[in-house]
Amino acid sequence: MEGSGDGAFDIHWQAPNVAAQIGGIRAALEATLNPRIDNNVRQEALQHLEQLKQQPDAPQYGFTLADDYSLDNAIRYYGLQLLEFSVRYRWSQYGNAQVEQITKWVKCLAGSLRQQDAAFIRNKVAQLWVEVAKRCWGDGWMDMDGMLVNMWERDVNVKGMVSKTFVLSVLEMLSEDIMVNEDAVAGLRLEVLGAALNEVMLRQSFFEQQKRPKMLGARQGEQGWCSRMCELFVDCVKQARLSSGSEAEEMTACAIKALNALRPTMSWISLDAAAHVGCIDCFYLPFHTDDVALRTAATETIHALAIREYRPNWHESWSILQQQAMQADRIALLRETFDKLVCGPGEDDAKYTLKKKMSELLSVLADGLSSHPDLLASDKLDLPAFFDLLLHVLQSTSLVVSIPVLHSWSKMMSVQDNAIIDMVLQALGTLIQTCSERLLRYENLPVDTNDEIVEFLNEDFDTMPERHAFLGNYRRYCSGIIQSIGRSRPIEALQHVLEQMRNMLQNGPYTGGRGFNPETWSKNSPSVLQFDAQFNVVASALKGFSLWCVDVSSLGQDEPLYTKAESDRANAEQAIQEWSYTVISIHVDDPEVAAQVLQTLVTVLRIVKPRADFVLHVVQHLLTMRLYDDPAHQSFSDAVKSFEVLRVIELQKLALVHADELLEVYSELEPRIGVLAEKNSDDPRLVWGYKAFLFMVIHRAKGVDRTIRMARLQQMVKPVYDAWQDPGLTSAVGSLQSTCDMLGMGDLPEFYQTYRFDQAQNWSTQQLDEKGQAKQQRIKELNDRLPLRMTKSMLAVTTEKLKPGSEESEIASAMWDDIVPVVLPSLLQMVRQAQAFHNMDNWAQLPDELQMVVKRTLQDRFWQSGISSESKDEFYARISGSKTSYEGFASVVRGTMRNLREQGYHILYLMTKFDERFYSVHDLAKPLADALFADAECLSANHLHPLINLATGLVSRCPPHHRPSFLPPILIQLFTKLDGKISAEWAAINASNDSSAREDDELGDEMRTESVLRQLTYSMVSFVAFLLEFDRQPNSPANGTNGHDASKPTLHDLVLSEPSILEPMLLYCTHALRMRDTRCCTTITKVFKTIIPLFQSNTAPAPQVREFICTEVLKACITSLNEPYFADMQKDLAALIAQIILLYQRQTNTPRDVLLSLPDMTAPRVDKAFAKIAKATSERQQRSLALELLEGVRGVSIYEAGKIARETPKKKDNALQQYMEVEQRPTIAQGDEAGLDGVAGLFDEV
């Protein structure tokens, strides 16, 4: 048969002779499915089947094959695929007669479905029906509803339930595509399809009651599909209960199918209509049965209705539905059902899934009560039974089952309704007990722990990052509940939790006399983890108590509760202080437990109003607490060192709050601090930490004469000034070689050659001799002698929580005024040389084998949660065990350079707190930018996060009047260097993914590399968003804080109007659209959607930016749109493409030219799409038009033709997904020394 002139099929249709084709189709299909067939043959078969789809008479072949019952199911299914291809990709090319013919074929196929047809055949016909309906129902195909009604009313004795299940499938897919999903085709006709679907779903009487305007005329008869489906569902459930065997199974399957069709409908149907039909009454019927699948489907459908967003105009119907769902008999039914679902970890997936779904439903119902307590007015609710059920589910040994209701309990703690308060008060005992028990860090327990909670966690989570994120959220909710209890019932709560902690200290194995042994100590032992959980319980309760104290302070003296509240507060504070005295008297040898006791005591001092003698008693205890180190046991020794660091930090916190009390005993403090500093003289972190503590006391105490104060403070910081004034330091940092000489690494190549590093395969097992270890120790000592640590410590305590304009702030600025200009030149050079060390060009003079040794030296060792094959403890044990090996030496070398960089970054950030005095330093911006970014691209990805953090601090604190001169050099180099670095790393990752399979170790390294790169990419993407949104924040300098002029140009304006900044920023954003990270790409699409409307004028640089967006950005969007990885981002990318077309098509033809360059794209098609986009009234319509325009080329790269097979992304359990969104950054542990504050907390202010 010949095709018509326009390439479509001839409407004068006759059944084609497909006999000759069937053999070829069957052989081709078998070739594609047979794993033993040669790949070349398989590809030829696929090509043949694809070519058939392109033929003009493909629809005829498709119908003929699909309608022939004598053929194999695979061939019939392929026939349906031929028809589907014609509908999806050729519909716009067909005339009215051809459209009518295809519609007729689809109707014929639907009407001839049989009971014995395979389910995938029946489903495909329903899908084909929906594809046609989306294109012509409502304004062309007007009798569709009547046809569905006719099929629905067919005698079940003739064809069974086939017709009804077909109609249910059609209705389900129509609801999904038109109302729920972002379907491109449906989006083009959303108004018509939405109105038609709404009309056919509801009864005519409902519209009459609502006094709705005239309908489309799409409905057949009085009854709507919502009531028809509910009636069928009820009938099927009844029949299933009354029958048995295959008949019961068929009725149950049909009931589940009805629920599946109703579920998407419940997400959009009018709540008045849902109440009118009586949906809730129907959906609870399955709970009278024992069928788990049926009850699960019912739970999901009730949940879809209950979770609908509340709106005031729906209040009455929303309340009716909520109250119907929570009637006393139904709560009893839910309790009975839940109790029957007894299953251990991994025993019964169906029951376990139902338990999770029921918990989600109960959570939604509880949230409805919390947000609208007026629901309690109904006399049909059994509130005690409902809250008892919530407590019952909360205590489930599956935390995944428990967490939805736990989240709801955390919300209910703040509800002020009396009835809910009464219910919450009755539950306090169970709540605090359950939450306290579950603050345990389950992720630190061994996987094989004999605990049902751990066993369920092992079943529920495949990766450690997911488990960590989930457990972090779970503990956060538990802590929030305990905090709320501590605020509402502070005295009872504190008495309970503090007594528990005291008992653990008195009776637990935390001293040598009760079984403590440094040899077997582990911070993940059960006893340590249990105390950690109790410590977090106490911390939450104390936080709640502090909030209660704030509440008490807000009471007026004339209020009735004032006297009692003040009395209760005084009694509580006295009780807490007495408890503290008791705890102080208990000796502890366990370093982790001692650290948490110390933190608890400091927290107590910060929230109560202590007597001066109590403050001094606690401080004395902090100073005299002694743990005896045992270097023979590495993990214990490291914990003792960590305790010493924490002691310094907590003392500094006390100095901020109680400087006046400490000043009174300063003459006693000073010698004691001197003893501690001398004791730890080998650790400059502690030495300068203790000195900083004394500095804070003098700086922050009131009543000290300004002259005396200034003199004493200047004396304390004089070592910092003198160190940076040293001419030897200035000359030593002038070049990379002299810097290496200063650090004892000037002869590093010779050392490597002497010890034959290039010949050692496993550096971790190759040990250094005494001379080599002496060299290693010398490098450490020279590193410690640098003035970085002292400078950072003194700057940090000087600037911590300074109030602008205060006397302390003025003294701090005056004191550092002369020091900052002295520090900066050498500091910048030091940072620059530390980065240059990583530039392999600086080692080019070495032989190739030594260059490889240097490159290997610069490779970090780090552990990453969920990727590393060993546990974190095993990783640290391996690192500790290799300190005197070749790898340990390399660790000291790279750690030394990282110390120079990151401490330098921290000092620079702290200097920005002096505002004008820092930013007004003459000609600082260019040397600062060079020091930070000249060799930044040579650093590994995990070392660039602190650099971005520093850039964020430099930008955010820059006074607006300094921005035009200070920020451009920094931002230009930041975007230029990091764009090049990140793009190159992604290119390497993509090339590696395309290569052959790797060994497990190599694959693990690549996974770590990719994970770190994703985080770096997101950091830069977030930095772009920060630049554009910063001045919108209420506390930004441009909004008038810090004494700056709010009339100055905003950061947003500077970035978008200065071409030298805008160009590299746009380049990075464009490249980010092609980086395979959904989170980053989503953020960048939002950034572009924000800035695209700003470049519609003809004033420079708008025309140039507009052309760039219309070429490079548009191409990047189209290319990403066509890649399988970005399947979940099609909505965002299509919206961006549509926005470019909509806003720029009048100023430039570039978008049109770019689209015309695509394969098979014609000018009429592009022009028609542009016109429709210009007239579209919603963003969804614009997105749909963009997707329709690119429908034929999606799956084809803009730069290279070729089909790309779409991959279905793995879907996560919705019950878990919302509780795994806190911990975004992967947990990375460095194998080298990481400083007092740690790399991750580089700019945390101590």
From TrEMBL:
GO terms assigned for molecular function: nuclear export signal receptor activity; RNA binding; small GTPase binding
Coiled-coil positions: none
Family that this chain belongs to: Belongs to the exportin family.
Pfam families: Exportin-5 (PF19273), IBN_N (PF03810)
Domain Exportin-5 C-terminal: from-to ranges: 350-1196
A cellular component term, taken from the record's GO annotations: cytoplasm
Domain called Importin N-terminal: residue spans: 47-128
Gene3D superfamilies: Leucine-rich Repeat Variant (1.25.10.10)
Listed GO biological process terms: protein export from nucleus; RNA export from nucleus
Name listed for the protein in its UniProt record: Karyopherin
Organism, as annotated: Recurvomyces mirabilis
Gene name of the encoded protein: MSN5
Superkingdom of origin: Eukaryota
